[in-house]
């Protein structure tokens, strides 16, 4: 008989906090952030890099190449669903 203490709890999903790099800052109050993550290919078992580009809302001018933390928010516009929390 197993006790409840030995069972592993299911992983809690992160609260929508992502880290990425600013790749475009030409728009006012908006930056394009590229999120890179490494995953193992299911068939070939090779580590591949996947990237997503998202638009994030910000009031500050953030230079290209800066590392930022973004959080998921309510829809701000048609394409913007994230907000810059901190510049790292």
In brief:
The protein is an all-beta fold.
How would you describe the overall organization of this protein?
With 88 residues, the chain is mainly β. It has a single domain, classed as Nucleic acid-binding proteins (OB fold (Dihydrolipoamide Acetyltransferase, E2P)), CATH 2.40.50. The protein is 0% helix and 50% strand. It has no helices and five strands. It has a five-stranded mixed beta barrel. The model has no long low-confidence stretch (mean pLDDT 90).
Low-confidence runs: none
Radius of gyration: 17 Å
Structural class: mainly beta
Highest CATH level, the class: Mainly Beta
Mean pLDDT: 90
CATH topology descriptor: OB fold (Dihydrolipoamide Acetyltransferase, E2P)
Number of strands: 5
Number of domain modules: 1
Mind telling me the CATH superfamily name?
Answer: Nucleic acid-binding proteins
Give the name of the CATH architecture.
Beta Barrel
In this structure, how is the largest beta sheet organized?
Answer: 5 strands, mixed, barrel
Helical content stands at under 10%
Q: What is the general shape?
A: elongated
Reading side by side through the largest sheet, how are the strands ordered? Answer: 1-2-3-5-4
What order do the helices and strands follow?
A: EEEEE
Strand portion, in percent?
A: over 45%
How many DSSP helices?
Answer: 0
Secondary structure layout:
Blueprint: E1 17-24, E2 30-40, E3 47-57, E4 67-72, E5 80-87
Parallel strand pairs: 3-5
Antiparallel strand pairs: 1-2, 1-4, 2-3, 4-5
């Amino acid at each position: 008989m197993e006790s409840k203490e030995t069972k592993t709890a299911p992983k809690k999903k992160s609260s929508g906090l992502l880290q990425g790099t600013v790749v475009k800052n030409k728009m006012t109050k908006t930056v394009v952030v590229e999120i890179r993550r490494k995953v193992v290919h299911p068939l070939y078992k090779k580590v591949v890099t996947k990237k997503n580009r998202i638009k994030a809302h910000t009031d500050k001018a953030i230079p290209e190449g800066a590392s930022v933390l973004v959080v998921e928010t309510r829809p701000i516009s048609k394409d913007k669903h994230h907000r810059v929390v901190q510049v790292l």
